[in-house]
């Protein structure tokens, strides 16, 4: 009887294992069919709301080294849209900037004008609370860097000692507007990978070197970038149409896009027409640099003043540049009025 019982147990165990494998296979098949039917390829972007778009872009660009790529708005929102999306009826237009965050999903940053929604961040255990995690090669170096920039670190890096995420180090930090974000690192992989799983979690660390190599191959020196930015300012001060056209061709890419809070200009012709119109409206005004030009990889930032000797008031602002193949391909204009 004992022998029969042992054989019976073995059969039951074998059947159970086979059933489990079938269930896993069936479940995976269902998920594959569902994914194919809906057509999902992967995560495109993560959206967050911020109280001040300019300050958020400055933080992402200056501190984290990310690059804003597209900007739309301000877009007025009608009453049905607000009701459908649970937006306060009195909240104003929305402006959106999409930011390239390296090798991974982009970050879509929203600012609502005259925002009447909640101005408090959700607590960590509230429904809807979320965070964005950024992979770094060395978490201790990254933490030291963020601290040098005045970023609030929430605790100290912790390395998982066991389990599926063994070998992963992580720590949370706060943005200047109070959103919680995370640094994470697992240079030697995670514990679960040692079990040869059927599915591996996507990681930005594996192809990151290829992306970095490609980026570095397109980089030009800081002095060359500063020279291009200075030439950009010369373009906006140049009144001779022929000279301006020659400068534009040297400095701006053919497909350059200039994004202002009120309009978008594409290509040499539209930007040249805008400059010409601006000069006609302010004959004696001139652009000048009011701070040293900042350079970060293939991006640059210029603080400027537009004023004339005849007026006491002036317009100040900041231009943010993205450069590719030795020319400016993106120009973001942020204005501020000074009395």
Automatic annotation (TrEMBL):
| Gene Ontology molecular functions | metal ion binding; methylmalonyl-CoA epimerase activity
Query: Which PROSITE patterns does UniProt cross-reference here?
Result: VOC (PS51819)
| InterPro entries named among the record's database cross-references | Glyas_Bleomycin-R_OHBP_Dase, Glyas_Fos-R_dOase_dom, MMCE/EMCE_epimerase, NTF2-like_dom_sf, VOC_core
**One Pfam short name:** Glyoxalase
Mind listing the GO biological process terms from this record? L-methylmalonyl-CoA metabolic process
| Alphabetical UniProt keywords | Metal-binding
**Name assigned to this protein:** Glyoxalase
Q: Where is the VOC domain?
A: 42-186
């Amino acid at each position: 009887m004992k022998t029969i019982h042992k054989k019976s147990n073995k059969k039951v165990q074998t059947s159970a294992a086979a059933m489990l494998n079938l269930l896993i296979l069936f479940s995976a098949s269902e998920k594959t069919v569902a994914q194919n039917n809906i057509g999902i390829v992967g995560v495109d972007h993560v959206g967050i709301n911020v109280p001040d778009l300019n300050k958020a872009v400055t933080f992402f660009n200056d501190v984290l080294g990310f690059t804003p790529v597209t900007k739309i708005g301000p877009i007025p929102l009608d009453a049905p849209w607000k009701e459908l999306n649970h937006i306060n009826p009195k909240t104003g237009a929305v402006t959106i900037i999409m930011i390239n965050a390296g090798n991974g999903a982009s970050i879509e940053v929203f600012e609502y004008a005259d925002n009447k929604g909640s101005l408090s961040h959700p607590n960590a255990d509230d429904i809807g609370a979320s965070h964005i995690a950024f992979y770094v090669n060395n978490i201790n170096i990254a933490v030291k860097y963020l601290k040098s920039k005045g970023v609030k670190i929430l605790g100290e890096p912790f390395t998982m000692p066991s389990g599926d995420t063994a070998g992963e180090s992580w720590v949370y930090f706060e943005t200047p507007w109070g959103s919680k974000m995370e640094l994470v690192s697992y240079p030697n992989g995670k514990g679960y990978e040692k079990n040869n799983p059927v599915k591996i979690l996507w990681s930005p660390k594996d192809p990151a070197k290829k992306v970095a190599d490609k980026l570095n191959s397109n980089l030009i020196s800081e002095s060359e970038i500063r020279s291009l930015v200075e030439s950009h300012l010369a373009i906006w001060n140049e009144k001779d149409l022929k000279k301006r056209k020659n400068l534009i061709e040297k400095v701006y890419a053919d497909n350059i896009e200039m994004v202002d809070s009120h309009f978008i200009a594409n290509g040499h012709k539209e930007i040249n027409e805008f400059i010409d119109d601006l000069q006609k409206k302010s004959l004696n005004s001139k652009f000048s640099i009011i701070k040293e030009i900042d350079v970060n990889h293939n991006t640059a930032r210029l603080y400027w003043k537009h004023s004339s000797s005849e007026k006491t008031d002036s317009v100040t602002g900041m231009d943010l540049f993205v450069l590719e193949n030795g020319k400016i391909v993106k120009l973001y204009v942020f204005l501020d009025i000074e009395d």
